[in-house]
Amino acid sequence: IMNGQNIPDAWDDGAANGTDGVRSAFTNLNIAAQPFIPNINAAKFVPAARKVEIPEEVVQPEVAVPEVVEMTIENSPNAVPEQVESKEMEDDVDVKDEVMNEEVEEVEKVDVKEVEEPPLSPSLINKEEHVNVVFIGHVDAGKSTIGGQIMYLTGMVDKRTLEKYEREAKEKNRETWYLSWALDTNQEERDKGKTVEVGRAYFETESKHFTILDAPGHRSFVPNMIGGASQADVAVLVISARRGEFETGFERGGQTREHAMLAKTAGVHHLIVLINKMDDSTVKWSQERYDECKEKLTPFLKKVGFNPKKDIHFMPCSGLTGANLKESDYANHPWYTGLPLIPYLDNLPTVSRSGAGPLRLPIVDKYKDMGVIVLGKVESGRLYKGQQLVLQPNKRKLKVLGIQSDEVDTESAIAGENVKVRVDSIEEDEISKGFVLCSPDDLCSTGTLFDAQIAIIEYKSIICAGYSAILHIHTCIEEVVIKQLICLLDRKTGEKKKTRFVKQDQTVIARLQTQGPVCIESFKNFPQMGRFTLRDEGRTIAIGKVLKVLDESD
Ligand SMILES: Nc1nc2c(ncn2[C@@H]2O[C@H](COP(=O)(O)OP(=O)(O)OP(=O)(O)O)[C@@H](O)[C@H]2O)c(=O)[nH]1
Ligand SMILES: [Mg+2]
């Protein structure tokens, strides 16, 4: 039986430790390296109403399952919630009212003359549905190999190219790695066999367009992984079933657990757990091994806040042979009768897209290419050519010169799309990762001081006021200090009590302060910009949601 208290001792093996590690991993990023193939109009994926009947574990008729609620972490490590209660958000409101009485800060309005908003063209509305899928999981689990195999199976890479990769990989004594080369495009990644930057590619089924975000598994590149997860609608957690590999990836620490937790914090609602390397000689498509992996993972995934009956689907596969990706391979897995990966993705419920609300585009990257280009996912609202925008937190006005989706110019984009935007009247060094493009008449809030509800997931020692960590909120990374622990929160009873310290598996309400101003919203108002992760010494230690952004004078 899994127990929260005896899990975490192996988080600290591995290379980069310390905030310096995180920082340098970032500064060393070559932001212009990957070919960016953004998607058009990817919609927010809401798994609630399943339109398709999906066999196996997922179907669960008798209970009316409440709405998905972010971050349900239990106080007691042993008690895992059967059902996620939607009442939790109400709890938060209570807490908020009691803890803080201040009025919400008035957001300053900036007066900019706007180009008239063009109507949504029918072609934009009828575009095929776009879904962003991020592949996450421990180093060497097979994420890039599966991504490459999918591209091959859907005709995105041809056989000749793959044969060329196979020859070249052989010369480097890495012959089994050739499939991953479709996504690991730079030399370092191919030489070392490790993804560094989030690789991007796309594939199409009859009804949908999918963007693959291939995240790095190595612990040094977790910040890159967070960037990838923040752009995803669906996450595929890749697990190696190979003897020993599953164990290092999960049981004795490793990125399996961290990635699942980060994906949840990033707002991914639906998780596909792909048990990979089923062809391996230590596995041989053994149902026993498959079930073992599944049983060990389930309690942790519950603890992170995924509802196993509703939000998670397990399936076996082999990235190397392609089995159960596009087509089932019943000879090998008579015991798995569910859909293979690609049809499963294709059958996920359709989502409605909307351009409603003020524009919010957190910037994930920027570079210069005959002007300034910024990259990111539109989290709300609508973006169009000629639009006047304001960059927060520095309140710089700018104008949209052009928008690209899938390397194709487009007139406008709406929430859910990953875009490349050419902007005017601003210098590249005035823009940073984590800044947010906003509608001039409705800016996002910014600040350095905020109150938050924080669940400590993995930390060996106690945490007191004065503790500092690295805050990851949407695409923003900033140092943060816990100024004050306001109260401990018993998530079962809702009881609050004063405390001087907090430890693993507890939930606390605290006041936090960042060094510089960040774009931040309360979770209640705008979840995408109100949930965060705290990392320390290269490890994720807590997840949280913003209750209130405070005035500097508070
Ligand atoms: N036997 C077997 N080996 C596999 C399978 N999938 C991947 N591998 C091998 O596992 C190794 C790692 O594969 P990658 O695809 O690079 O793994 P990754 O998860 O992308 O790794 P990082 O990007 O470093 O996190 C390679 O040697 C692959 O050939 C599989 O289904 N079966
Ligand atoms: Mg990889």
From TrEMBL:
Q: Which residues form a coiled coil?
A: none
Q: Name one process (GO BP) from the record.
A: translation
Q: Where is the Tr-type G domain?
A: 128-353
* Major subcellular site: cytoplasm
GO CC aspect terms? translation release factor complex
Report the locations given in the UniProt record.
Cytoplasm
Recall the GO molecular function terms of this protein's record: GTP binding; GTPase activity; translation release factor activity
InterPro entries in alphabetical order: EFTu-like_2, G_TR_CS, GTP-eEF1A_C, P-loop_NTPase, T_Tr_GTP-bd_dom, TRAFAC_GTPase_members, Transl_B-barrel_sf, Transl_elong_EF1A/Init_IF2_C
Report the Pfam families cross-referenced here: GTP-eEF1A_C, GTP_EFTU, GTP_EFTU_D2
Instruction: For this UniProt record, give its keywords in alphabetical order, as a comma-separated list.
Output: Cytoplasm, GTP-binding, Nucleotide-binding, Protein biosynthesis
Kindly give the CDD domains that the UniProt entry links to this protein: EF1_alpha, eRF3_C_III, eRF3_II
Q: Which family does it belong to?
A: Belongs to the TRAFAC class translation factor GTPase superfamily. Classic translation factor GTPase family. EF-Tu/EF-1A subfamily.
Q: What is this protein called?
A: Tr-type G domain-containing protein
